[in-house]
Amino acid sequence: MFPVFKFARLLPLAAAISLAAGCASTAPVASTASLTNTYWKLVELHGARVAMTPEQEREVRITLSDDGKVSGFTGCNRVMGGYTVAADVLRFTQLGGTRMMCPPPAMQLESAVLAHLNSVTGFRIEGEQLILLKDGAPVARYESVYLK
Hints:
By secondary structure, this protein is an alpha+beta fold. It is 25% helix and 38% strand. Strands 1, 2, 3, 4, 5, 6, 7, 8 and 9 form a nine-stranded antiparallel β-sheet that branches. The longest helix has 21 residues.
């Protein structure tokens, strides 16, 4: 009888967890971040998580200003250029940057970041995430970072 009593005491907890799980929504998260004037940190590229390597000075990031300029860091070098946006269409233009040499992993990451920026055709913002799209398919996911 004793083990049944222990189990019975856990039933309310199990019911609460089940109820909470059942209430989870799969609806898109409302946008809370702004496309412009937000520090966007790269967290995923072509479906793979991106983490800083020990050789990196700082995280991969972009910031789009209200005047149509983009600046950031690609894993090895600074990047700058322009962008155009209309509704959910986004295109980066005239991207350029510094040309320092870095260890091979950072150079490979930089090449991949520049390739995806040059291929972007759209975007969407979900909560605190910026998802860059190529022909409707996600190519990169960024998270907003708030500086103190």
